[in-house]
């Protein structure tokens, strides 16, 4: 099979433990782009938190794509065209805020330049800010402040509280929202139907390509949908056990140039 597209989760996949792209992995990605292959960065991160990696890989020059907010937004890096965009129902923000307070966990969302905190700081939303290299703005009235369309909210807290919140919120919202953990301490609140696989189908339609031409690489729970969907689903050696179970191929870890190994083996 001739693979033309490689889709990469970021944290734990493209980047190593220091949140950096290693020289070997970068060289492999630059080489396939020069050959006309397409690189897609697919992450739960907000768009501003992905841009520095897109710039490092020169996606603007080569025509790569950013799939941010777990797939709620897709941007063509070369043309800046928004290929796909779906936002949360505005009325859900108040309910989510009230529930976060009830569960004793954090809640945040994003503007174009900041992380908006609605329920105080904790070590997990501090980690989110650090990962995305974005400043934090703590606001007193979160639902009132978020008067603009947002692609997702993120709840943060101790893993056992996050698991309980996931169960309760799924019962409450049913099919109206897509609710899942990307990490044991991160609960993603997405518009209905949104996951990486759903949005990659939109991108493939836009590109007039087949999923058989696409490799998807990841390590976390939020990568499961695209790993199952891809022509070749790849799990990192450091992936969650459940993710490894679903993959067609297990590559080296993110600290051992696992993505370079995939490219050398299949592209």
Most strands sheet: 8 strands, mixed
- Number of structural domains: 2
Q: What is the CATH architecture assignment of the largest domain? A: 3-Layer(aba) Sandwich
The CATH homologous superfamily name of the largest domain equals: HAD superfamily/HAD-like
Radius of gyration: 18 Å
What is the CATH class designation of the largest domain? Alpha Beta
State the share of residues found in helices, binned by percent.
25-40%
Structural class: alpha/beta
Description of the structure:
- By secondary structure, the chain is of the alpha/beta class.
- The protein folds into two domains: 155 residues, Rossmann fold (3-Layer(aba) Sandwich), CATH 3.40.50.1000; 100 residues, Hypothetical Protein, Haloacid Dehalogenase-like Hydrolase, Chain: A, domain 2 (2-Layer Sandwich), CATH 3.30.1240.
- The protein is built from eleven helices and 14 strands.
- The protein is globular, with a radius of gyration of 18 Å.
- It starts with a strand and ends with a helix.
- 48% of the residues are buried.
- The model has no long low-confidence stretch (mean pLDDT 96).
Brief account:
The protein has 267 residues and is an alpha/beta fold. 36% of the residues lie in helices and 22% in strands. The relative contact order is 0.17.
Give short descriptive properties of this protein.
267 residues; alpha/beta; Rossmann fold; Hypothetical Protein, Haloacid Dehalogenase-like Hydrolase, Chain: A, domain 2; 2 domains; six-stranded mixed beta sheet; 11 helices
